[in-house]
Amino acid sequence: MTHPGVGKSQIVLASSSAIRQALLRNAGVQVLVKPPGLDERDILARAGVQTARQASALLAKRKALAITWGPQDLVIGCDQVLEFEGRVLSKVQSMEEAAQRLHAMAGKTHYLTGACVLAQDGRIVWQHQNRAAMQMRPLDREAIATYLQQAGPQILSSVGCYQIEALGIHLMERMQGSYFSILGLPLLPLLNALRQQGAIW
Questions:
Q1: pLDDT digits over 123-141, tens only?
Q2: Residue 79 appears among annotated catalytic residues
Q3: What pTM was computed for the model?
Q4: Is 11-196 a domain of CATH 3.90.950.10?
Q5: Which sequence spans correspond to the domains of the chain?
């Protein structure tokens, strides 16, 4: 029996996300990490996408196809977008904007729509989408300020201004959806796809 991640194909993760890397490596999947370095806002603006599903699917595909590797190797492309009150939101640029976003979402439900694809030799060979509903508990400005001070500026890497695997869990009242998908990687469907491609046992 072959160890996970040791097969005929190398597995490349087209992402700089530390949590995606950790999820794969904790599952025993050996991955090479190659961030694609794309301007996501520009891609979405040029494409004129209208929905969260369209946005996440487009970005996941563009990330995977931006990476050039061996013809037998598999490139994982993932993306997750936040939909709130009918709008697809982009990442904020400052802690002040983060406070404004959390104040707007406090006590309400927002949605995380994610997409994950596998690309091989310049074409998409597998794709998956998922959606999670996130009910944030009521928060006053003092609670938000305390959270941001403790969580630090690394939360700016998340469109929701929280990391659910860390202090961000304290912001939530209810979550509906796959935990791994909420973290940004639909791990179980992805592992199954990698097995079908012969990349892991």
A1: 999 999 999 999 999 999 9
A2: yes
A3: 0.89
A4: yes
A5: 11-196
